[in-house]
Amino acid sequence: MSEQQFQQTVMTELEQRMDGLSKLRKPFPAHLISKLPKPTKAQTDEVKADFRKGERCGICGTWHHPKVVHLDYVGHAALTDRLLDADPYWSWEPVAIEANGAPMLDKDGGMWIKLTVCGVTRLGYGDAQDKTGANATKERIGDALRNAAMRFGAALELWHKGELHKDDDEPVKPPAPKTMPTYPQADFEKNLPAWLNLISTGKKTADQIIAMVGSKATLTEQQQITIRAVHQVEAPTGEMSEAERAEAVAREMKESQQ
Ligand SMILES: [Zn+2]
């Protein structure tokens, strides 16, 4: 294989990967989005104590308290379909296994998994929600896959809208505008003679002094006027001597070189 062919092959493979990964990010159509009831503990307890406190839900079809909120989620079949679209060779495996080869659960009954799509591996975590028995295992797998796939951007908008990420929706306070302190008048008066000396000897212009001082503290309008006004008074008004002229020219040349 020539160098060029090799580069072509690498580029093609990279493009295919990026294409597969970007497929995971496409929003799911409405008909693939299901509703997951998220009862509070109080709501669950109320219905458990008296089933008549619940009702057959018109949204998700299960029996629960009428005031339960629902989260949008993508079902296992729809997510698997999407993973296959992105990469027919996608796979997942538990992070840790028991001696008998079964996935190891943590102390909360949750399971960590590795999801690999288009050669990229990311971690995910799933739990059984309130399911028990064999259903708990299936729920844990589906939940972990959804969680790991979310790290690839799959159905991300649903996670964002849902209560799971409630904090994200809280308005972010804009940072307070950065204000500099005003220049203390006492310091201003103390430093003024030195600045005027710099200006009158041509080492600095009034603008340069204002810019320099203004980078540390805000000069009031009056302070700026003072610096400029005195400059005008102090500026040489009469004819320059030959020596002064020569010095001024030399200074200008020096400044233009800086
Ligand atoms: Zn419901």
Query: How many domains in all?
Result: 2
Distance between the termini: 57 Å
Quickly give the CATH architecture of the largest domain.
Answer: 2-Layer Sandwich
Biggest beta sheet summary? 3 strands, antiparallel
Tally of individual helices: 10
Present as ligands are: zinc ion
- Unreliable parts: 163-170
Radius of gyration, Cα only, in angstroms? 36 Å
Helix content estimate: 40-55%
Order of strands across the main sheet = 5-6-7
Output mean pLDDT. Answer: 84
Class per helix and strand makeup: alpha+beta
Strand content: 5-15%
- The total of beta strands comes to 7
Shape: elongated
Question: Can you offer a commentary on this structure?
Answer:
The chain has 258 residues and is of the alpha+beta class. It folds into 2 domains: 20-169, Enolase-like, domain 1, CATH 3.30.390; 185-257, no CATH class. It contains 10 helices and 7 strands. It has helices spanning 3-25, 41-49, 76-86, 133-150, 156-161, 166-169, 185-200, 206-214, 221-234, 242-257, and strands spanning 33-38, 55-56, 63-64, 69-74, 91-94, 111-117, 120-126. A 3-stranded antiparallel sheet has the order 5-6-7. Helix 1 (3-25) packs antiparallel against helix 3 (76-86). The chain is elongated. Residues 163-170 have low confidence and may be disordered. Zinc ion is lined by residues 37, 57, 59-60, 62, 64, 68, 70.
